[in-house]
Each structure stands twice: as structure tokens, then as C-alpha cells.
Amino acid sequence: GDSVTQMEGPVTLSEEACLTINCTYTATGYPSLFWYVQYPGEGLQLLLKATKADDKGSNKGFEATYRKETTSFHLEKGSVQVSDSAVYFCALFTYTGGFKTIFGAGTRLFVKA
Amino acid sequence: DSGVTQTPKHLITATGQRVTLRCSPRSGDLSVYWYQQSLDQGLQFLIQYYNGEERAKGNILERFSAQQFPDLHSELNLSSLELGDSALYFCASSVANAPGQGFSGANVLTFGAGSRLTVL
Fold first, then answer.
1. For the residues B62-81, what does the mean pLDDT come to?
2. Torsion sign across C-alpha atoms B60, B62, B64, B67
3. Closest CA to A51 of A64, A62, A37, A69
4. Torsion (CA) B40, B43, B48, B50 in degrees, nearest 10
């Protein structure tokens, strides 16, 4: 079945370090891919998305490229800030076999000053 | 404020009891989704409604039920509560659920702030 696998956390980085959170997916058809972020005490919110192969989603300095050949959608940021500390969820949306949004397990990021 | 309203924010109850969680979707959104987030199991999809009709079911226990009303708000009912039901329950909404109904190919979910349920 359809699934999303993302790297386990927590990930701890110093401010201004580079970030990569890996995400791979399994899906029939051509899903849309998302990264959602959950700040402490809040609900999830959309960070970025990509709807087709080779699309690059970007927002707030974060980027992810839809790689169909490797079924991946890795999240990257060149220089993290303390305010980026949160849980990051990779997700896919597919309408093959029924509309559904499937989330990965989430990766907690801690950024130290 | 995301536009999705969930009540109550916090709820403490005892095992065996029944609770109802309420969700008002963002204005204009027809689909409502319920998710359970616990410490060790991440974000689990429970159930989805579109314009009053059940559209998809995930890992929802038989002790749980939900509905979406004509004004599009939704309620999640949890009964015979167990300690393991303690979790954050999120509601999310989206515009559409099918091609030709505002579907753009990327079904973005807007989440509420969640209802934290503690079962003692």
C-alpha cells in the first residue's frame, strides 16, 4: 500500500547548520507531496508542496524537490535558526484507489543557539 | 489562527467514560478529517467526511464514531475510554475531495490546534 518513510529523530543542530531530513514514499499513480511543520503546542501547518516530478517546493528558506526516479522528497535548509525547532512531517496525497493523505512518522528537530 | 476550530482544547476524564470532540472547518472547506497523535505512534488517520458523507476510514476503533453535520461541523465521539486513548486529536479540513469540485491536484489540509485528551 501507499506509505511514507522519513528519517527518525530527533535531529539536533547548531544554529546556522545545514539541515536535511530524508523522506521516501511508496505510491501507486502520481501523488502530490508535502512537508508539514508542527511547532510546539500547535497543529500542523503546510510548509511546502510539489505536485509533479521535478517540481521544487520552497518556503521560509526550506526546499524539497519531487524526485520520481528515487521516490524521494527530502527537506533541506541551508542555515537553520532556533525558531525552526519543530516536528516535520512528510506526506503524500493520492487519488488513486481513493482520496487519501498519508503522513510519515515525523522528525523532531532541535536547533541550539 | 488557521480557521479550523477545535473544542475543547483540553479534556481530562476517567476510563469507561464517553467524550465528544468538536471541529468547525475553515470557511468554504467541505472535507473534514480526524487524526490521532500519540507519542509513540505519530499521526494516525481516523476518518474523513465530505459534505456530510463518510469518504474514507483509517485506523478508527469501533468504540469511536464521527459525523459531519449539515452546517459542515464535525464531531468525534469516543466511548468506553481506555488509558491508551490518551492523545492529541486533530481535525483538519480541505476544500474538495474530487475532480471537478475545486480539486487542484494538491489536497492541502488545514489543521486545527487539537484537543488533548487525558484518560485517567
1. 97
2. positive
3. A64
4. 160
Chain B residues touching residue A93 (CB < 8 angstroms): 106-107
Q: Which residues contact A63 (CB under 8 A, 6 or more apart)?
A: A48, A56, A57, A75, A76, A77
How close B2 gets to chain A, by Cα (Å)? Answer: 8
**Averaged over B7-34, what is the pLDDT?**
95
Contact list in A for residue B2 (CB cut-off 8 A) is: 43, 45
Which residues does chain B have within 8 Å of residue A102's beta carbon, measured at their own beta carbons? 45
Q: Report DSSP letters for chain B, one per residue.
A: --S-EEE-SEEEE-TT--EEEEEEPPTT--EEEEEEEETTTEEEEEEEEETTEEEEE-S--TTEEEEE-TTS-EEEEE-S--GGG-EEEEEEEES-SSTTTT--S----EE---EEEEE-
- Residue A19: CB atoms within 10 Å: 18
Residue among A24, A32, A23 at smallest CA distance from A101: A32
The whole-number mean pLDDT for each consecutive block of 10 residues of chain A, a chain of 113 residues, reads 89 97 91 93 92 93 96 97 96 76 92 96
pLDDT of B92 reads: 95
A39-43, B31-35, B39-43: which has the highest mean pLDDT? Answer: B31-35
